[in-house]
Every structure is written in structure tokens, then in C-alpha cells.
From TrEMBL:
Protein name: ABC transporter substrate-binding protein
Gene name tied to this protein: OppA
Pfam families membership: SBP_bac_5 (PF00496)
Compartment list: Periplasm
Gene3D superfamilies: Dipeptide-binding Protein, Domain 1, Dipeptide-binding Protein, Domain 3, Periplasmic binding protein-like II
Lineage: Bacteria, Pseudomonadati, Pseudomonadota, Alphaproteobacteria, Hyphomicrobiales
Length: 534
């Protein structure tokens, strides 16, 4: 173990927190106090992009399909559907009892309007490219065609027809995502972008927005017009932002929060001892990586990017920093994705750390850094949580071993991700991504040329783009997988993003919360849960 690793562990130990499960008054069985990663930037489903927002939208809205509390796809606003023999046309029949939270009927026109709005470039949707499998979607989003040309139609009030440019194996799962959620047309017509405010937001899901207090809570109440309202037992859910995870654990222990969606990784041994099976861990389709600003010297030099990647001890980060709640990432795509093979991996996984450090120093020397020269100085940006701060400290220690000087810039999650999406200047930045559907395309599309909402470093590679285009047109799943495999190999060679860790979902769930089942999609809609007094 290097001096850097020993010094980090010593400092980390000082951050440990003694916890005890406090007692509280008998809790209300109709109010679920749900810890959430962060405040949302927006509740407009077509402008959201974070996991914290997805948790909220899952309670507020319902797509044509949705998820249950086991992570299984189930019918949502659509009662049933059919697929044409060429897998290009999907016909959905809406339920006849679908209602918005103000009592208006949910119609096919609502979905038609929403999908056109999502792809209209005037909306500025960050996720728009996710919907490119729909016929005409790319042209609409690029401003080359009118939204009315999109391959979606509503021949009557209960029928939605989606036509694809090429068949994709994940279309139904895509329709569970916020990109495909309906929005209430009269509200947008009346209020414009302000339609998401409390008192104005009209939603078609099991809950409706009541109040929003920044940095405190977002309160939802059961939508009495929802078709299954009679079977929903939790009347009110308060989403409580918990960026300070140590504080959140204290509140949980005191009985002030019923569940947490993230945990301080450096406290995992203590949490497991004190809370036992209230600590829930499960695999997840997620990636934590370092985005590199390839527009900026010296980070446009692949030798610099490779040197920084080589000395990252991913096993150390996963075990010592994250308490085995993450796994080392030597690929962009996590293992276990549908429609893929085992992903390619970064070279050097089996190489000794000292040999990787020697190779990294040699690469930096070739790039103009090293003994007798100015050291490489980097700025690392991250969104503030205990786990992310500890990771940043550990990365800086590892990079210091090859003569790299690191300084930090950290902000709240909303500011951090907005800064990257809006083209802010940076050197290195923490990026995280949870799959919207279990397919390698959902990771690889992030680095496509022009996808500036996610490709923060503006990396561009024509061969990579070409492989993604070929894969999109390929009907044979095996050949498609091989094309995507070759595309991922290009990313791992160029390293516009440096893979660091793959996620496992981690949560604290009170014994009084019933119905949460850890699953690969990391979903637990409140409508399927219940509470006891505890």
C-alpha cells in the first residue's frame, strides 16, 4: 500500500461517525419521508436529466409503460399494445380511465404533443437524442423538419402509434423514461415554462405536487383522479434532499427520515453493524467516470488522459473509499447489459500498480511534464456529497504520486451538472450515469459528436460516430453488439471519459417501510409501498 493510500485511510478514519438508532414518536402511516439525492433542477420531464429528478417524476407522471417495485416493466397509461411483424410500428391503446390530477382525461393527443415537444429544438431537451430511434426524430431535433413530421400519430383519443426508423430492442423500456412522459397541454399553454410550479403543475401519475421548499422538501399528495388511487395507501410523500449523507444518516437514526437513497461509503462497516438488513445493496446499471475537457490543452493530449487513468487504483476506491458499494470500472458499459457481450476493458488491469505508475510518468514526460519541468496541474470539479469528496481526495493522492497537482471545485448537484451541460470551462469533472434502459447504446450515445448536453468535453471521433450509426441501422442483435463493442474500444483508447467505478445501489430502509425490493433498475414507486407505525 502506498503512502498516499495509507494517508488517505488515516484521514478517512477521522471522518467515521458513531451512530445509534434513535427512538421517535410513533410515525404517521400516511406520510413517507423519502430521502432523495438532491433537489431537482426542474420538474419539467422534458428538461430533466438526473436520478434524483427521475425518482420524483416516477411518482408524478405515468408513461405508456412504467415500472413496479420489483423493477419490472408493466402497463402504464397504455392498457395494451401490439408490434408489427417488422418491429417498426408499435400501436398503444390507452386506458379509458386515465385522468390528469385536475380530472381532465388523458388522451393520445397528450402523448403526441409531449413527444413533439421533447424533440422540438426550441424546448432545449437534454435527453432528446434518446428518442432518435423514432422515425424523423433526429431531423426534428436538429431543426431540419417540423415537429409534425415525427413518426408518432394519434388517430383517435385512445390510440398512439409510434413508428421507428429502424427496429431497436429497447423501445418498450425507453417508453418508461421521462423523455416519453406526457405533459398537460393547457397548463403549458397558460403558464409556459412556469407550468411546473406548485399550484400549477398538473400530472397524470399517482401523486400530485403540493409544495416545494428548496433544500428542505418537495411534498406530493395522492392524486385522487389516478385510476388506482383506491389501492394507494401512502397519502403523502415528502422527498427530502440529502446531499450531506452523514447528516442524513443522523436524521434517519433519529426517525426523521424513513429511507435514504444513498449512503456515506466510508461508514458502511458501521452502518451494517448498527442497522443490519436495513442497509440494502444491489447491482445497478450505473457508471461513475471523469469527463475530460478535450477542447483544452493539455487535456487534448491522449497521453495526459492515459497517464491520469493508469494510476487510478479502482480496487482501492471501490473497497476503501466506497466500502464495497461500488465495483472497479475498466469499461464504460457495466457488465450485465442486455443486447451486448462482455464489454471491452482498459489495458493494464493485471499490471502491478508500480508498473502503471512508471508508464504514467513516461507518458507525462513525453507530453512535457516531469522532473525539471513544471508539474501538471489539474482542476477537478465534483458535486458535493461525502462520498464524492472522499473520492476526490483519494484521486488527488493517487495523482500526486506521479507529480500531478490537483485543486478542487465543488458545488451542489444542480449547479454542477448545469455547469457542464451549459458548456462551462473545466479540466476534469465527475460524471455519473444510470442507464435509462438496459442496452449499451444508452451509455455509448453519451459521447456522440454534438450531444453536448452530456458530452461535456466535446470529444468527437468520426469512426466512433460511424459505428453508432451502423449499429442503429443493424437488425441483427449479434452484429449490432459487435459494432457497439468496437465503438466502446475506441472510447477506452481515446479516454474522453475515464471510467472509474460502476454503481451498486445502496439504501437505508426503515422496517416501517414495506414493499421496497432492491432491483437492477433501482426503482421503487411510492404507489406500491406502505408504512407501519414502527
Amino acid at each position: 500500500m502506498s503512502i498516499a493510500r495509507r494517508s488517505w485511510l488515516k484521514g478517512s478514519a477521522a471522518l467515521g461517525l458513531g451512530l445509534s438508532l434513535g427512538t421517535s414518536a410513533r410515525a404517521d402511516t400516511t406520510l413517507y419521508r423519502r430521502g432523495n439525492d438532491a433537489d431537482p433542477e426542474t420538474l419539467d420531464p422534458h428538461k430533466t436529466s438526473t436520478v434524483a429528478e427521475a425518482h420524483l417524476l416516477r411518482d408524478l407522471y405515468e408513461g405508456l409503460l412504467t415500472y413496479d417495485n420489483h423493477g419490472r416493466m408493466i402497463p402504464g397509461a397504455a392498457a395494451h399494445w401490439t408490434v408489427s411483424s417488422d418491429r417498426l410500428t408499435y400501436t398503444f391503446t390507452l386506458r379509458d380511465d386515465g385522468r390528469w390530477s385536475n380530472g381532465d382525461p388523458v388522451t393520445a393527443e397528450d402523448f403526441l404533443f409531449a413527444l413533439r415537444r421533447m424533440l422540438d429544438p426550441r424546448t432545449g431537451a437534454r435527453y432528446a437524442e434518446v428518442l432518435y430511434p423514432i422515425k424523423g426524430a433526429a431531423a426534428v431535433n436538429r431543426g431540419e423538419a417540423a415537429p409534425e413530421s415525427l413518426g408518432v400519430s394519434a388517430p383517435d383519443a385512445r390510440t398512439v402509434i409510434v413508428t421507428l426508423a429502424e427496429p431497436v430492442p429497447y423501445l418498450l423500456e425507453l417508453l418508461t423514461h421521462q423523455t416519453s412522459l406526457p405533459v398537460h397541454r393547457p397548463s403549458i399553454a397558460q403558464y409556459g415554462d412556469a407550468f411546473t410550479r406548485p399550484g400549477r403543475l398538473v400530472t397524470n401519475g399517482p401523486y400530485a405536487l403540493v409544495d416545494m421548499v428548496p433544500n428542505d422538501r418537495i411534498t406530493l399528495k395522492k392524486n385522487p383522479h389516478f385510476r388506482d388511487a383506491g389501492r394507494i395507501v401512502i397519502e403523502t410523500v415528502a422527498f427530502i434532499p440529502t446531499p450531506d449523507l452523514s447528516s442524513a444518516v443522523r436524521r434517519y437514526a433519529a426517525g426523521e427520515i424513513d429511507s435514504l437513497s444513498d449512503l456515506p461509503a466510508d461508514q458502511m462497516p458501521s452502518l451494517k453493524r448498527r442497522f443490519g438488513d436495513q442497509v440494502q445493496l444491489s447491482p445497478a446499471l450505473g457508471l461513475m467516470a471523469i469527463a475530460v475537457n478535450t477542447r483544452k490543452k493539455p487535456f487534448d493530449d491522449v497521453r495526459v488522459r492515459r497517464a491520469l487513468s493508469l494510476v487510478i487504483d479502482r480496487e482501492f476506491l471501490a473497497e476503501a473509499v466506497w466500502g464495497d458499494t461500488m465495483s472497479p470500472a475498466y469499461s464504460l458499459c457495466p457488465p450485465g447489459l442486455d443486447n451486448y457481450r462482455d464489454p471491452p476493458e482498459l489495458a493494464g488491469r493485471e499490471t502491478l500498480p508500480i508498473d502503471r505508475e512508471d508508464e504514467a510518468r513516461a507518458l507525462l514526460a513525453e507530453a512535457g511534464y516531469g522532473p525539471g519541468k513544471a508539474p501538471l496541474a489539474v482542476e477537478y470539479r465534483f458535486n458535493t456529497t461525502d462520498n464524492n469528496r472522499n473520492t476526490a481526495i483519494a484521486l488527488a493522492d493517487l495523482w500526486r504520486g506521479i507529480g500531478v497537482e490537483t485543486r478542487f471545485v465543488n458545488t451542489d448537484a444542480k449547479t454542477h451538472f448545469a455547469y457542464l451541460r451549459d458548456g462551462g470551462d473545466f479540466d476534469l469533472a465527475r460524471i455519473s450515469w444510470y442507464a435509462d434502459y438496459s442496452d449499451p447504446q444508452n451509455f455509448l450515445f453519451l459521447l456522440r459528436t454534438g450531444n453536448d448536453g452530456f458530452n461535456a468535453g466535446h470529444w468527437s471521433n468520426a469512426e466512433y460516430d460511424g459505428l453508432l450509426n451502423q449499429a442503429a441501422a443493424e437488425r441483427d442483435v449479434g452484429r449490432r453488439a459487435e459494432m457497439l463493442f468496437q465503438a466502446e474500444r475506441i472510447v477506452l483508447s481515446a479516454l474522453p471519459w475515464i471510467p472509474v467505478l460502476h454503481y451498486r445501489s445502496k439504501a437505508l430502509v426503515s422496517p416501517r417501510v414495506h414493499g421496497i425490493h432492491p432491483n437492477l433498475r433501482n426503482v421503487a414507486p411510492t404507489r406500491f409501498l406502505s408504512l407501519s407505525q414502527g
